[in-house]
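Retry 2 of 3 after timeout on previous attempt. Resubmitting C-alpha coordinates to design endpoint.
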Protein backbone atom coordinates (compact mmCIF):
# COMPACT_ATOMS: atom_id res chain seq x y z
CA UNK A 1 0.00 0.00 0.00
CA UNK A 2 1.47 3.32 -1.03
CA UNK A 3 0.76 6.99 -0.44
CA UNK A 4 -1.98 7.10 -3.09
CA UNK A 5 -3.77 4.09 -1.57
CA UNK A 6 -3.66 5.81 1.83
CA UNK A 7 -5.14 8.99 0.30
CA UNK A 8 -7.94 6.96 -1.28
CA UNK A 9 -8.71 5.18 2.00
CA UNK A 10 -8.69 8.45 3.96
CA UNK A 11 -11.06 10.06 1.45
CA UNK A 12 -13.45 7.11 1.37
CA UNK A 13 -13.58 7.00 5.18
CA UNK A 14 -14.68 10.64 5.17
CA UNK A 15 -17.11 10.17 2.27
CA UNK A 16 -17.86 6.71 0.91
CA UNK A 17 -19.74 8.39 -1.94
CA UNK A 18 -16.67 10.23 -3.21
CA UNK A 19 -16.67 10.02 -6.99
CA UNK A 20 -13.83 8.54 -8.99
CA UNK A 21 -13.47 11.96 -10.59
CA UNK A 22 -13.03 13.68 -7.21
CA UNK A 23 -10.59 11.01 -6.01
CA UNK A 24 -8.70 11.33 -9.27
CA UNK A 25 -8.28 15.08 -8.77
CA UNK A 26 -7.17 14.61 -5.17
CA UNK A 27 -4.62 11.90 -6.01
CA UNK A 28 -3.45 13.27 -9.39
CA UNK A 29 -4.08 10.02 -11.26
CA UNK A 30 -6.75 8.94 -13.74
CA UNK A 31 -10.23 7.73 -12.79
CA UNK A 32 -9.57 4.23 -14.22
CA UNK A 33 -6.40 4.03 -12.09
CA UNK A 34 -8.43 5.05 -9.01
CA UNK A 35 -11.05 2.38 -9.82
CA UNK A 36 -8.33 -0.26 -10.19
CA UNK A 37 -6.76 0.70 -6.86
CA UNK A 38 -10.13 0.63 -5.07
CA UNK A 39 -10.85 -2.79 -6.59
CA UNK A 40 -7.44 -4.05 -5.38
CA UNK A 41 -8.08 -2.64 -1.87
CA UNK A 42 -11.48 -4.35 -1.78
CA UNK A 43 -10.14 -7.70 -3.02
CA UNK A 44 -7.35 -7.63 -0.43
CA UNK A 45 -9.91 -6.99 2.32
CA UNK A 46 -8.48 -3.62 3.33
CA UNK A 47 -11.74 -2.00 2.25
CA UNK A 48 -14.42 -4.36 3.53
CA UNK A 49 -17.60 -2.35 3.10
CA UNK A 50 -19.33 0.97 2.66
CA UNK A 51 -21.68 2.20 5.35
CA UNK A 52 -24.18 4.94 6.08
CA UNK A 53 -24.00 6.73 9.38
CA UNK A 54 -27.41 7.45 10.88
CA UNK A 55 -28.69 9.38 13.88
CA UNK A 56 -30.20 6.56 15.96
CA UNK A 57 -32.29 8.92 18.08
CA UNK A 58 -34.08 10.23 14.99
CA UNK A 59 -35.25 6.70 14.24
CA UNK A 60 -36.49 6.06 17.78
CA UNK A 61 -33.49 4.44 19.50
CA UNK A 62 -32.87 6.59 22.56
CA UNK A 63 -30.78 4.22 24.70
CA UNK A 64 -27.20 3.18 23.92
CA UNK A 65 -25.38 0.94 26.37
CA UNK A 66 -22.34 -1.25 26.80
CA UNK A 67 -23.01 -4.64 28.35
CA UNK A 68 -20.20 -6.79 29.65
CA UNK A 69 -20.89 -10.51 29.94
CA UNK A 70 -19.03 -13.17 31.92
CA UNK A 71 -18.94 -16.27 29.75
CA UNK A 72 -17.44 -19.68 30.23
CA UNK A 73 -15.47 -20.75 27.14
CA UNK A 74 -18.00 -23.52 26.49
CA UNK A 75 -20.80 -20.92 26.19
CA UNK A 76 -19.27 -19.12 23.19
CA UNK A 77 -20.71 -21.61 20.68
CA UNK A 78 -24.21 -20.64 21.81
CA UNK A 79 -23.54 -16.99 22.66
CA UNK A 80 -22.03 -15.83 19.34
CA UNK A 81 -24.90 -16.97 17.08
CA UNK A 82 -27.41 -15.61 19.59
CA UNK A 83 -25.97 -12.07 19.71
CA UNK A 84 -25.44 -12.07 15.94
CA UNK A 85 -29.18 -12.69 15.56
CA UNK A 86 -30.13 -9.67 17.71
CA UNK A 87 -30.22 -6.52 15.52
CA UNK A 88 -29.94 -4.27 18.59
CA UNK A 89 -26.41 -5.57 19.19
CA UNK A 90 -24.36 -3.24 17.01
CA UNK A 91 -20.98 -4.64 18.08
CA UNK A 92 -19.66 -7.46 20.24
CA UNK A 93 -16.03 -8.06 21.18
CA UNK A 94 -14.17 -10.76 23.09
CA UNK A 95 -11.98 -8.92 25.61
CA UNK A 96 -9.60 -9.47 28.50
CA UNK A 97 -10.54 -8.95 32.12
CA UNK A 98 -13.28 -10.14 34.46
CA UNK A 99 -15.85 -10.07 31.64
CA UNK A 100 -15.01 -11.92 28.45
CA UNK A 101 -17.44 -10.12 26.12
CA UNK A 102 -18.48 -6.50 25.69
CA UNK A 103 -21.44 -5.53 23.52
CA UNK A 104 -22.60 -2.17 22.30
CA UNK A 105 -26.38 -2.17 22.05
CA UNK A 106 -29.11 0.31 21.10
CA UNK A 107 -32.75 0.16 22.19
CA UNK A 108 -35.79 2.41 22.00
CA UNK A 109 -36.21 2.44 25.81
CA UNK A 110 -34.67 1.36 29.09
CA UNK A 111 -37.48 -1.19 29.42
CA UNK A 112 -36.34 -2.84 26.17
CA UNK A 113 -32.73 -2.75 27.39
CA UNK A 114 -33.75 -4.28 30.73
CA UNK A 115 -35.61 -7.10 28.99
CA UNK A 116 -32.55 -7.88 26.86
CA UNK A 117 -30.22 -7.84 29.88
CA UNK A 118 -32.57 -10.20 31.75
CA UNK A 119 -32.48 -12.62 28.81
CA UNK A 120 -28.67 -12.48 28.64
CA UNK A 121 -28.41 -13.09 32.40
CA UNK A 122 -30.82 -16.03 32.31
CA UNK A 123 -29.10 -17.68 29.35
CA UNK A 124 -25.45 -16.82 29.92
CA UNK A 125 -24.77 -15.42 33.40
CA UNK A 126 -23.41 -12.31 35.05
CA UNK A 127 -23.47 -8.92 33.29
CA UNK A 128 -22.39 -5.35 33.97
CA UNK A 129 -24.08 -2.52 32.07
CA UNK A 130 -23.14 1.09 31.43
CA UNK A 131 -25.74 3.36 29.81
CA UNK A 132 -24.32 6.10 27.58
CA UNK A 133 -25.33 9.65 28.52
CA UNK A 134 -23.45 11.36 25.68
CA UNK A 135 -20.80 10.63 23.06
CA UNK A 136 -17.86 13.00 22.74
CA UNK A 137 -16.23 11.16 19.82
CA UNK A 138 -18.41 9.33 17.28
CA UNK A 139 -17.15 6.14 15.67
CA UNK A 140 -14.66 7.15 13.02
CA UNK A 141 -11.97 5.74 10.79
CA UNK A 142 -8.28 6.17 11.33
CA UNK A 143 -6.29 8.60 9.22
CA UNK A 144 -3.50 6.75 7.45
CA UNK A 145 -0.16 8.43 6.87
CA UNK A 146 3.39 7.26 6.31
CA UNK A 147 3.99 7.01 10.08
CA UNK A 148 1.33 4.35 10.79
CA UNK A 149 1.46 2.05 7.75
CA UNK A 150 4.29 0.30 5.91
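Retry 2 succeeded. Sequence:
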Amino acid sequence: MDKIDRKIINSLQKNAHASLKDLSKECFISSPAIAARINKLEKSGIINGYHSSIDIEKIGFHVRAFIQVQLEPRQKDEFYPYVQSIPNVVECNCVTGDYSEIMEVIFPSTTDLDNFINTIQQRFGKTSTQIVFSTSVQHRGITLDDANID
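Attempt log closed. The chain has a mean pLDDT of 93.
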